[in-house]
Write a structure and sequence with these properties.
By secondary structure, this protein is an alpha/beta fold. The protein has a single domain, classed as DHBP synthase. The N and C termini lie far apart (45 Å).
């Protein structure tokens, strides 16, 4: 059985891994490797220009990696994360261009509630680039057995945490004058927008 140590070694080597999150199983790689990010997108069959999330173990770590998040973006992130959200935030320095797709002035970030194994992985690497471990348009994997064989056979490490909730994160775009729900997932659109309003009102 693979361990967090195995996953950290694989990520540092530029390989792809499957990790559990608080929602679904994710396909992950080093966010610093253009080649790894390209391989991840090709394996998943993602259309060109689609962004990937920068997934870290804490908001503190996200701000270390993307210092421009400091300020209002950080304040909102601290109110919503860790949790089942992907937040699209301003990225004025255009960091991690290999993740941002057609919107280089923005970046999607995620801090899930972590299983012990994934927490250990994110203690060993600064962050990962991540997306759900399915073929583009396919069902989101609740169990390792739900991850397509084409993906399982191409990754170096799979961390199995049993059955997960199975509904992906809710994606919130916070780059405009008003928050927008780009994908309704684990949190309903109504509840997500209410959470943002609460965070901005603090």
């Amino acid at each position: 059985m693979s361990t967090a140590v195995d996953a950290v070694a694989a990520l540092r080597a530029g390989d792809l891994v499957v990790l559990p999150t608080d929602t679904v199983y994710g396909l992950a790689c080093s966010p610093d490797s253009v080649e790894s990010v390209r391989a991840l997108s090709e394996l998943k069959g993602r259309p060109q220009g689609r962004p990937l999330a920068l997934l870290a173990g804490s908001v503190d770590r996200l701000v270390e990696l993307v210092p421009e998040l400091a300020g209002e973006s950080e304040r909102v992130a601290r109110m919503l994360l860790p949790g089942p959200y992907t937040l699209v935030l301003p990225n004025p320095a255009r960091r991690y261009g290999q993740l941002t797709g057609d919107r280089p002035g923005t970046i999607g970030v995620r801090v899930p509630e972590l299983s012990p194994a994934t927490a250990d992985v994110l203690a060993g690497v600064p962050a990962v680039a991540a997306t759900s471990a399915n073929v583009h348009g396919g069902p989101d994997p609740r169990r390792v057995e739900d991850v397509p064989v084409s993906i399982l056979s191409a990754v170096s490490v799979v961390l199995d945490a049993g059955e997960l909730p199975g509904t992906p994160s809710t994606v919130l775009d916070l780059t405009g004058e008003e928050a927008r729900v780009l994908r309704e997932g684990a949190v309903s659109a109504q509840d997500a927008l209410a959470a943002v309003d609460g965070a901005l009102g603090e």
